[in-house]
Design goal:
By secondary structure, this protein is α/β, with parallel strands linked by helices. About 40% of the residues lie in helices and about 15% in strands. It has one domain: Glycerol-3-phosphate (1)-acyltransferase, CATH 3.40.1130. The chain has 7 helices and 9 strands, in the order H-H-E-E-H-E-E-H-E-H-E-H-E-E-E-H. The strands form 2 sheets. Strands 1, 2, 3, 6, 7, 8 and 9 form a 7-stranded mixed beta sheet that branches. Helix 5 runs parallel beside helix 6 (about 170-175). The two termini are about 25 Å apart.
């Protein structure tokens, strides 16, 4: 159902407030040395729940293979990226794990948000500087090894029409080097919440999160990474269309 302009403005303002508020809390606790993972996990879950509630997003997790991240195994969650709501929706897939997202470098310059995300152990990537991007992905690799589960948009940027685009190489290079398990999740319906190039929300939208079989990136090398990328793209397409 299409929200009114006033309702859409309210959702935007409230979502921005909650995001800024929790980032501020994280930055303060980080400065005081109190932003431990348990607190961050709980705070992220609260943040995602509030954002979804504002737009009355109805979601269901479809996990026929009962996939679950394994303790001690570096894990990367890769999803399609068609909406600003992909991140809060993704946190609902495995709510009992420490999940962080790989964010674009520009967000690190936003007041409070940048410091808050650093305190929450969310890495940034400079998509405009390939040399720096490699260093950023290496930092993400170290987080994976420390027990963080990383959410990465395999397409690199948000789709303008909701369709699945080509995957970037960087996340797969990181997965191979970290010998990580890749868990693909196909998010259906999130694009309809707030389509690209509009500020009008649709409320009460139904979103489905389809979880695919894990892919062991340790079975691949940098020389045959294209095979891994092709396999992941095919399986993501199937998750979105089946």
């Amino acid at each position: 159902m299409k929200a009114s302009k006033l309702r859409s403005l309210w959702i935007t303002v409230a979502a921005s407030f909650f995001t800024g508020y929790y980032c501020f809390l994280a930055s303060v606790r980080g400065f005081c040395g109190k932003a431990h993972r348990g607190w961050v996990d709980k705070t992220i879950r609260t943040w995602s729940s509030r954002l979804l509630k504002l737009a009355r997003v109805n979601y269901v997790v479809v996990n026929p293979h009962h996939v679950e991240p394994k303790l001690g195994q570096p894990t990367i969650i890769m999803s399609n990226h068609s909406s600003l709501y992909d991140i809060p929706v993704s946190f609902k897939t495995f709510p009992n794990h420490s999940i962080r997202w790989l964010a674009k470098k520009e967000l690190s310059q936003v007041p409070f948000m940048g410091r808050g995300m650093v305190a929450a152990e969310c890495p940034f990537i400079d998509r405009k500087n390939r040399h720096q991007a490699i260093k950023d992905l290496n930092a993400a690799k170290r987080l994976l090894e420390s027990g963080i589960i990383m959410w990465i948009a395999a397409e690199g940027t948000r789709s303008k029409d909701g369709r699945l685009a080509d995957f970037k190489k960087g996340p797969f290079i990181t997965a191979i080097e970290a010998k990580a398990t890749i868990i693909l999740i196909g998010i259906r319906g999130a694009f309809n919440i707030i389509p690209a190039k509009t500020r009008h929300f649709n409320i009460n939208e139904q979103v489905e999160i389809h979880v695919g079989k894990p892919i062991d990136a340790s079975l691949y090398t940098l020389e045959n990474k294209e095979e891994l990328i092709k396999k992941a793209h095919q399986e993501m397409k199937a998750l979105l269309e089946s």
